[in-house]
Write a structure and sequence with these properties.
Elements (H helix, E strand, L loop, with lengths): L1 H12 L20 H11 L2 E7 L5 H11 L2 H7 L3 E7 L9 H13 L7 E5 L5 E6 L5 H12 L17 H7 L4 H4 L3 E4 L2 E3 L9 H5 L1 H18 L6 H19 L3 H18 L3 H15 L5 H12 L7 H4 L5 H8 L5 H33 L4 H21 L11 H22 L7 H24 L1
Parallel strand pairs: 1-2
Antiparallel strand pairs: 1-3, 3-4, 5-6
């Protein structure tokens, strides 16, 4: 009895075994988070490559891991087209992370895995498009050839980000939106409208856009046919798309800056979605040359980055700003002369552009934060996110001409931005895994405490 009691006390004193942050059977360069992999595939126009393995009992699986999946040559080449996901199904469940222990058995059932190793290729929605099974002799070259054979005839994700073919509705947001321009203004607040550019080229015909859109719709099929698949001559791709833009520019009577905006926005979107590395490189070179021709290039690109941000990413509070009370009163009472109004409008337009850049930086930093797994990575991403959020607050409280924000208005903006930051981190926090999770959780708790403190002070 004494021996049993001592043994029980020893066992009780031993630290509980915790699951590893990442399953032990996941090679470097791979992930085990399928949900995250699907999001990445949707953003990058790739397929998801899932390898089902039994790391502690399947000999052929271990050979595939050692000879193919862990080889840098395979990871480098396969990652151009696929997001690599290792789904380990070991007998010793302590090898699995908490995520994998829950997720992997369900995935094996979903895709009806009966033999190991098995490889399943899916789209970003999880729909199977191809599969392979068994060990392949010959290392990365032989397996990549086998993989290409399995994918022969599979239609690759389109050049536009996402899964769907290019549709008529997809084209319009990529080109210059002219409704506000036809009115000669870009509204930034109910009390203040900012002139964006001269409207000399606009008339009833091209403001209506009916004829322009009709022509664009006819070009959709041509564009899809030319871009189908991953191959093709890079220079031919560029020439065809340039021809499309020239047709649009002629129909819409774009001025030089409008044409540059259209080209930059479209080529930025295309450079993110091309499947072929050679074509993507050609697109990136085209974009670089266009950026040199206008000082507003980063502003146009920021707009497209915001369009590509995930649907759940709410940035309205971070980008919300209002005209200073003094300016609103001066405008409503007719005390603004033309010079003061033009100065305020010019500063408001600068603010709108700075805000768009800041919001795009927030979106980029938030997406990178979601991919963090180590504490160091999380801290670095949070620092970037802090800076981007601070830029939003600064842009939203900068003076408009000679009119500046009061202390109360600045405090209100600070509270609004903080609330938006908390909302953003609350959406991100459940998606964070590994050692990064406690770091993000701690930051969220700190921000909530700050928010509560600010509310208490405001109430007092």
């Amino acid at each position: 009895m004494k021996i049993l009691l001592i043994l029980a006390l020893v066992l009780a004193a031993m630290p509980a075994r915790t699951a590893p942050a990442v399953s032990l059977g996941v090679p470097d360069g791979w992930t085990e988070d399928v949900a995250k992999a699907r999001r990445q595939a949707a953003l990058q126009g790739k397929f998801v490559f899932m390898a089902f393995s039994g790391s502690d009992w399947c000999g052929w699986c271990r050979r595939m891991d050692q000879e193919v999946f862990s080889q840098s040559d395979f990871i480098r080449k396969a990652s151009r087209k696929y997001v690599l996901v290792m789904i380990d199904c070991p007998q010793n469940k302590s090898r699995l992370s908490e995520l994998a222990a829950t997720q992997n058995p369900d995935l094996a059932r979903q895709y009806r895995i009966v033999g190991y190793p098995s490889m399943v290729i899916t789209d970003s929605k999880g729909r199977k498009v191809a599969s392979l099974s068994g060990y392949t002799k010959g290392g990365p070259p032989a397996f990549l050839d086998k993989l290409d054979g399995a994918m022969a005839g599979v239609k690759w994700p389109t050049l536009f980000i996402g899964e769907n073919p290019v549709e008529q509705g997809d084209l319009i947001p990529l080109f210059v939106e002219r409704i506000g321009e036809c009115k000669g203004e870009l509204a930034v607040d109910d009390e203040l409208a900012v002139s964006r550019r001269p409207v000399k080229s606009l008339n009833a015909r091209n403001c209506d856009m009916i004829a322009v859109r009709s022509r664009l719709y006819k070009l959709v099929d041509e564009l899809n046919a030319m871009m189908e698949g991953a191959g093709g001559n890079p220079a031919a791709h560029v020439r065809t798309i340039d021809a499309l833009i020239k047709v649009y520019a002629k129909e819409a009577k774009l001025d030089k800056e409008e044409l540059l905006e259209t080209q930059i926005r479209l080529w930025f979107r295309l450079s993110k979605g091309f499947q072929s590395p050679d074509v993507r490189k050609e697109a990136e070179a085209k974009l670089a040359s266009l950026k040199l021709q206008t000082k507003n290039a980063e502003d146009y690109i920021a707009g497209e980055e915001l369009r590509l941000a995930p649907e759940w990413m709410e940035l309205d509070d971070l980008g919300a700003w209002a005209v200073p009370k003094k300016l609103r009163m001066a405008a409503s009472e007719g005390r603004l002369n033309d010079k003061s109004l033009r100065s305020a409008q010019a500063e408001a337009l600068k603010t709108a552009r700075k805000m768009q850049l800041a919001k795009a930086a927030v979106a980029n930093a938030a997406i990178k934060l979601m991919d963090c797994e180590t504490a160091a990575e999380a801290k670095k991403s949070l620092a970037r996110l802090d800076g981007a959020v601070a830029a939003c607050e600064k842009s939203g409280t900068s003076a408009l001409g000679k009119f500046s924000y009061s202390a109360n208005e600045k405090q209100a903006a600070k509270e609004r931005v903080l609330a938006g930051y908390i909302k953003l981190l609350m959406a991100i926090e459940p998606e964070i895994n590994g050692d990064a999770a406690p770091v993000v959780k701690a930051r969220l708790a700190k921000l909530k405490a700050l928010d509560a403190s600010m509310r208490t002070e405001a109430a007092d």
